[in-house]
Amino acid sequence: MEFTDVILQRRSCRAFTPTPVDRDVLSSLVEAATQAPSASNVQAWRFCVVDDEALVRKLDMVSPGLSGKPPVIIVALTDRAYARAKGGEDAANEFATLDCAYACENLMLAAANAGLGTCAIKSYNEAAVRALIDAPDDFAVELLISVGYPDQAKSPRAPKRKPLSEVCVFNGYDMANAGEQNNTQATPELELLAYMITSAAGLAGEPSIYGPLRLIESAKRIASMQAAALAQEDPDRAAKLRHLTHLIDERQNDCMTNEASFYAMLDEAAALLADLL
Fold this sequence. Notes:
52% of the residues lie in helices and 10% in strands. The chain is an alpha+beta fold. The chain has a four-stranded antiparallel β-sheet with strand order 1-2-4-3. The protein is elongated and about 75 Å long.
């Protein structure tokens, strides 16, 4: 199915057939969910796939928003303690929920592509859901997703969507100057200044690893400016500075996926810098 067709095919399905959904298919939906973006790559999302008929019915009983007797309910949760340990308070209190929402959309699109219907449910008794699935204390229930083969006799109609003109603007909300461009070009030095000030302001709520990341990004920008300044006067030093810039650029984001590589890069960068002093 074309991707645009998958998006249009996804509807909130509230009528399902009793046909079971194969576990391999269900696993593939969760696999798709785990490919969603995740702030700082924390991946605090967790999924409890419920396909036991008796347990599905019990979850149904404590979820007023759920309908259609789905054969499967996927409980989307976040591990708040893990998110806090990996990314700080913002990761636990805000980003984990956002990441889980991205993941759930991936899951529902994958389900649509597999010919399955889904419905995202937020109306449930969290305490009861937690008890029924024995959720760990540090897990928060974010969403229930009903999953199953849709009853084609009760296919949901496409809901009316607002026109693009009502929800989208280009270049801000100053309608009097819509379409006008601000042609003022900031200098590289001013761009760096803005980056450093806004980075410092944001560090309080960010993961601890972001401190070294912001510092090394600033260092990379300074090295790039120095390389440009020395290009004619001292081509050899300019080339070394460009090499330093490329080294940082290639591996600075390893801080979110491979911290050992990131810190090894810092040592390599320090050695390159020593050669320039």
